[in-house]
Amino acid sequence: MPDEMARPLIRGRGGGGGGSRHLEASVSEPGAPVIGILGTGDFSRSLARRLVASGYQVVVGSRAPKRSGALFPEEAEVTSQMEAANQADLVFVAVFPEHHSTLVELKPALAGKTLVDVSNGLQIKLDGPSHAEQLADLFPESFVVKGFNTISAWTLQMGPRDGSRQVFLCSDSHKAKSSVMQLCRRMGFVPVDMGLLSSSLEIENLPLYLFPSWRIPILCTLLLFIFFYLYNFTRDILQPYIKSGKSVFYKMPIETVNVTLPSVALVMLALVYLPGLFAAFLQLWWGTKYNRFPNWLDRWLTGRKQFGLCSFLCAVLHAIYSLCLPLRKSAHFKLLNAAFKQVRGRSRRVR
Ligand code: NAP
């Protein structure tokens, strides 16, 4: 829809009495669905702002509408949960999953409507049912869509320019999912269809993974660094000290680290190419390229970029350390020179 794309996300604030609640004022478009939000927490407030700015009519359902009303943009109506459920065509459930069961009295009002479950878990769950599936069991007459849980309240408030633009969605109802996808696009996000509601567990786990593909390469880098550092420390520092009482412990922070880094970089680089050799060998052994590689090799092959980048980081650090070394040596030389000149000057004066 080209006219929709041309419409600015944030409307002008107008000359009138726009207070802080007018941050992103917009006029709701006729014919646009009424969007309901249950809950008045951080997520609900940011979502309401973004929806209002995108031209939607928003109705928020709260257990205490009088208390929460002032926190929302003026264009959004804050009312009771039942009133919001009755008015809305599509409802975001922005309450924690533990409190989903307190919403069952809204069942008749929500029947036949789309419910968007935005909840996140507190820890990674490997087995279902997911929160979205539990919500679908609670509201069998509604169409549950899982999504928006990977978008933070901050991103919603700042707009998609300042965070991830992808919104992962799944649902057993194609129609409900399509309507949420359309809403997503209008808010400036990029919907990603993840299929049926059975994928909701995966979507709920997504925000809980911390740099998932980086864990093993970083662990490898650290372990290799510790191994090579201990080896160099024993060979260059501990052994001369024990054998001849020569104390070179000052080498520990720079020189020993500098000797260690290239070893780590080279081994990490070897780890980038090694799985390719294993894969080629296996394919020759099997006589076909259509067999699946074992899981460990598959994970290793897909992590080669991260291994390579860790190797590159070590090489860059080695270059920086190598540049620092002559500086340290020249400073050392200048200091000795100055001391020597001072001593020589004094001895001349004495003579
Ligand atoms: P919050 O600030 O604690 O708000 C939760 C809201 O739930 C309350 O304001 C309350 O509103 C409502 N509620 C309804 N029934 C309730 C009950 N029985 N007990 C307590 N509260 C009840 O939480 P939030 O940060 O907005 O998160 C809401 C949901 O969004 C969660 O499922 C969370 O996982 C998800 N989420 C949040 C973020 C984020 O950045 N915050 C991001 C992604 C997903 P009333 O008192 O007005 O009824």
TrEMBL record:
UniProt GO MF annotations: cupric reductase (NADH) activity; ferric-chelate reductase (NADPH) activity; metal ion binding
Gene3D superfamilies: NAD(P)-binding Rossmann-like Domain (3.40.50.720)
Descriptive protein name: STEAP3 metalloreductase
Cellular component terms per the entry's GO annotation: endosome membrane; plasma membrane
Membrane-spanning segments: 214-233, 259-286, 306-327
Recorded family membership: Belongs to the STEAP family.
Catalytic activity: 2 Fe(2+) + NADP(+) + H(+) = 2 Fe(3+) + NADPH; 2 Cu(+) + NADP(+) + H(+) = 2 Cu(2+) + NADPH
Superkingdom assignment: Eukaryota
Necessary cofactors: FAD
